[in-house]
Specification:
This protein is 46% helix and 4% strand. Helix 2 packs across helix 3 and helix 2 packs across helix 5. The chain has a two-stranded antiparallel sheet. The chain has one domain. It contains five helices and two strands, in the order H-H-H-H-H-E-E. It is mainly alpha-helical and 113 residues long. Keywords: Cytoplasm. It is found in: Cytoplasm. One of its GO terms (cellular component) is cytoplasm. This is Sulfurtransferase.
């Protein structure tokens, strides 16, 4: 993963939701104070791939574990929370054009995954 700011093409996201485009992510990121880098795009691709492979309800814990496993060599959860301070699942899903799984944000506990 690198930190170069880039705008990838839609063809780099074969598992993207039909109504999603990279420009959608850039708009959301700007509103949330993020400058999208290659790291962010890699997480977006991973989320879209996970949702495409797991038809049916997605469980937040399983998704967290899958992300941690995929990115463990560069720091796992710690790195994911550094680049997505709104939560790698909650904020990542927003950027990827996906519906966050239930329980990814629990403001009563102050938790964001």
């Amino acid at each position: 993963m690198s930190n170069d700011s880039i705008t990838p093409s839609l063809t780099e996201f074969p598992n993207a939701p039909v109504s999603w485009s990279p420009q959608d992510s850039e708009t959301i990121a700007e509103a949330e104070g993020l400058d999208l880098t290659a790291d962010h795009w890699e997480v977006i691709q991973a989320l879209q791939e996970y949702f495409a492979r797991n038809d049916g309800p997605v469980k937040v814990r399983e998704l967290q574990d899958a992300l941690h496993e995929r990115f463990h060599q560069i720091g796992g959860r710690r790195k994911l929370f550094q680049i997505l301070p709104g939560g790698p699942v909650a904020q990542g899903c927003r950027l990827a054009g996906l519906q966050s799984p239930p329980g990814s944000v629990d403001l009563s506990f102050g938790s964001v995954y």
